[in-house]
UniProtKB/TrEMBL annotation:
SUPFAM superfamilies: Nudix. GO terms for molecular function: metal ion binding; NAD+ diphosphatase activity; NADH pyrophosphatase activity. Gene3D superfamilies: 3.90.79.20, Nucleoside Triphosphate Pyrophosphohydrolase. Residues 215-347 form the Nudix hydrolase domain. Belongs to the Nudix hydrolase family. NudC subfamily. This is NAD(+) diphosphatase. The lineage of its organism: Eukaryota, Fungi, Dikarya, Ascomycota, Saccharomycotina. It comes from Naumovozyma dairenensis (strain ATCC 10597 / BCRC 20456 / CBS 421 / NBRC 0211 / NRRL Y-12639).
Length: 377
């Protein structure tokens, strides 16, 4: 990891082609869903399962129970009966994974193994699919947070992709315009209002544009602040506890409506640290499935003039501390880091490890510092 070019973040690696334009083609969705080569990432009550040390995936052709379930669901696609409350199942198409041995193809153009996320929220009295229908899954344990960060990035990214859609399908059950039930369309990537009574106005169903509900993503800005020559980096300790560790990291906050990324960064920086930032640029982004965030990793350049860089924690009570550290010193500890969720820094302080976008940003500043000083030699 040089830290100089845009890094690939954890949860940010994609190896399925989402072919988003095919989701609205029922023939494609049906054929992908019933193809024996298709792979499903199963979830129970919103959480995926582990098979040993890896994420459990199921090949449709190898599991008769799953084939029976899909057979029951196929006629219900794009109808009210597919709702998770009625069927017990949330289902979403993730994409086609192009591999040498994939046999599935559509219209001789789109090839690859179809991937789906499937979530079972069963009620034996009311849902179409019952507990006995998923007995094949009972032998597996649910994924824990610590499991995820030990997965390879491509698998963790697949998990994150499935989890965000399935979480949304499971939580959003009613139309925000009229309160009628909504049901998934386009292979579980949009929700349609079920209200057919035209005398009742629904500002979702009757909208001229976007007359469906889309999944949400909540953007969060996360900024590494540095001096223009990269010799200083500002790291902060939040009030959030990290076990027995004293963690210093970059600062972060949710973007608000009608805010640019740049404005959100400069606002968060000033509110939390009192620092006045002069320039914002985006370095990398990271999907974060807890629950549906997009971390927008930025660099904030501060022109030191005796005022801009002055730290004040008096505006917002979010931080316990913020300090300007010598980038050279941070770089020394970064160079010793060999992986893991925490990076040891001086005085018992830890910095976030490589799965966090904050690490990528700190590493980026250190890389820039090194490069600037190499060129001086
Ligand atoms: Zn509605």
């Amino acid at each position: 990891m040089s830290g100089i070019s845009n890094p690939t973040t954890f949860f940010g690696e994609t190896d399925v082609n989402r072919v988003s334009f095919l989701r609205s083609d029922p023939e494609f969705v049906r054929s992908a869903l019933s193809d024996k080569s298709s792979i499903f990432v199963p979830f129970i009550s919103g959480e995926a399962l582990m098979e040993g040390k890896d994420l459990l995936t199921i090949n449709l052709g190898a599991h008769e129970e799953l084939q029976t379930i899909i057979h029951k669901l196929l006629p219900l696609l794009n109808t009210k009966e597919i709702r998770i409350d009625a069927s017990g199942v949330g289902l979403t198409f993730l994409g086609l994974k192009e591999t040498l041995d994939s046999s599935f193809e559509y219209k001789s153009t789109y090839k690859g193994t179809p991937y789906f996320g499937i979530n079972f929220e069963l009620n034996d009295d009311t849902t179409l699919i019952k507990l006995q229908d998923i007995s094949l899954l009972s032998q597996y344990r649910k994924v824990g947070r610590e499991d995820i960060f030990k997965l390879s990035n491509d698998v963790a990214s697949l998990y994150s992709h499935a989890k965000m859609y399935l979480d949304w399908l499971s939580k959003y059950k009613f139309c925000p315009g009229c309160g009628s039930v909504v049901y998934p369309i386009d292979a579980g990537t949009k929700l349609q209002c079920s209200n057919e009574d035209t005398s009742i106005r629904c500002n979702v169903r009757d909208a001229n544009v976007n007359n469906v509900c889309f999944p949400r993503t909540d953007p969060v800005v996360i900024v590494a602040m540095t001096s223009r020559d990269f010799s200083k980096i500002c790291l902060a300790r939040s009030r959030r506890r990290y076990g027995d560790f004293i963690m210093y990291s970059t600062i972060a906050g949710f973007m608000e409506p009608a805010e640019t990324v740049e404005n959100a960064c400069t606002r968060e920086i000033w509110e939390e640290t009192g620092i006045r930032c002069n320039e914002i640029s985006m370095i990398c982004t990271q999907p974060w499935p807890y629950p549906v965030n997009l971390m927008i990793g930025c660099l904030g350049i501060v022109d030191f003039n005796g005022i801009n860089e002055k730290i004040s924690l008096d505006h917002d009570a979010e931080l316990l501390d913020a300090q300007w550290f010598d980038t050279e010193e941070v770089t020394q500890y970064l160079d010793k880091y060999t992986g893991g969720s925490l990076l040891n820094f001086k005085d018992g302080i830890v910095l976030p490890g490589e799965t966090a976008v904050a690490y990528q940003l700190i590493s980026y500043v250190c890389g820039k510092f090194k490069k600037a000083n190499d060129s001086k030699l």
